[in-house]
Amino acid sequence: MNLLSAQVLQEFGVVSRKIRKDKSCFVVSTDAGSLTIKKSLDSCANVAFAHDIKEHLAANGFANTDRFRSAVNGKPYVLHDGGVYVCVETLNLRESNFSDAADVRRAIESIARMHRLAHGVSLANAAKPACDNTLVQLQKDVTDIAAIKRKLGSSGTLSDFDVIFLKNYNFYAAQMREVIAELEATRIQDYIQTAHSLPSIIHNRLKEETLLTDGNRLYITNFTTAAVGYSIFDLVSVISRYIRENPRDTAELSVYDLLEIYDKHHPLRVEDVLIARALLRFPFRFVKLLRAYYSKKRTWTPSAILSKMQTIVSVQESYYRHLD
Q1: What per-residue confidence (pLDDT) applies to 60?
Q2: Given a cut of 80, is residue 3 above it in pLDDT?
Q3: CA-wise closest residue to 222 among 232, 212, 230, 214
Q4: Proportion of the chain above pLDDT 70, given as a percent
Q5: CATH number of the domain encompassing residue 301
Q6: Residue 19 structural domain
C-alpha cells in the first residue's frame, strides 16, 4: 500500500494538505492538525470495541488514548478494497523506557487510572473474555512441559536448546506448581468472575510501544487486543517487563513500590497483591518459547530462538530476587 485512496480520506471527512508515508501508516496534514491513517490488521468488531473503550474512558476523564476519528457514517473505521482503515490524531511521542524509573512510574499510574475508569464500559460491541479459567490453563502448561521432558528423555540426540531446557526444567516446574497452589488458595477464579461481571477491561498488550510518552504525559494506545478481564493480568505484565530489564541490585523501584503506586490510583485488595506476586513467579515466557520451539519438528535450532532461551535463563536469578 504505497498510496492512500482519496475515497478513504473522503469517507473520514478529511481534507488533506499534505500526505507522507511513514512505515505502514500515512501521516496526513490538515487545517485541523495532523492525522495518522493506517490499514488495521484487526476485525471491524475489535476496532469497534476498542473505540467503545476509548470513548468511555474519555467520558470519564481519561483522554490520553489514541482515540479513533469517526468516519462520516459514524463508524470508527472505513472499509475500502477489502481493508479496514482507522484514523487517529498523530501522537508525536516516544515509547516508554522500562529502564527509566520515571517512565515506569508514569506508566503504572496511568494504567491504574485506566483500569479504574474503564469499569462499566458498554458491551454493545461484544468482547471475548481474556481468560475464563486461568488455573486450568496453568495446569495444562505444567502437564505440557512435563510431557516434553519425558519425550526428550527417550531421545538419542539433544540440541543446545534441549540441553538448556532440561537443565532448567526442575526449577521452573517447581515454580509453576507452587504458583498454582498459591492461586488456588486465593480463589483467583472468583476474582476473575467478578471482573467479568462489572465488567472490567484489560488492555492485553501493555508494553513499551503501546505506552507512549513525552516525559510528562503518557498515552495508552492500541486497544484492539483489549478484552473483559481481571486487571491484575495487565499489572503483572508491566511489572514483569520492568524487573526483567532492571537487575535487583540497581533497580530504583521494587515490586512493592510498583504495587503501591498502582494502589494509590486503583486500590488493591490483599488477595489482589497475593495473586499478582504469584503470577509474577509463573514462567510465562519460558513456556511460550517451549511451545513455539517444540510445536514443530526441527532438524536445527534457529539462532533467534536459542538466543531468547539463553536470555530468559540468564536473568532468572535476578528476576526471582525481585520477588523474595
Answers
A1: 96
A2: no
A3: 212
A4: 97
A5: 3.90.1200.10
A6: 6-90
Residue 66: what residue type? D
Spatial separation of the C-alpha atoms in residues 276 and 155, rounded to whole Å: 38
Note the pLDDT tens digit of each residue in 45-86: 999 999 999 999 999 999 999 999 999 999 999 999 999 999
The neighbour count for residue 9, using CB atoms within 10 Å, is 21
pLDDT tens, position by position, 144-176 = 999 999 999 877 789 999 999 999 999 999 999
pLDDT number for residue 131: 65
Residue that finishes a domain, picked among 90, 109, 143: 90
Tell me the pLDDT tens digit for each residue of 97-143.
999 999 999 999 999 999 999 998 887 776 666 667 899 999 999 99
User: Distance (Å, rounded) from C-alpha 261 to C-alpha 246?
Assistant: 18
**Inter-axis angle of helices 232-245 and 101-118, to 10 degrees?**
170
> Distance of CA 28 to CAs 21, 51, 101, 223, Å?
9, 21, 34, 22
What is d(CA 96, CA 209) in angstroms, rounded to the nearest whole number? 7
pLDDT at 206 over 60: yes
Same-domain check for residues 106 and 61: no
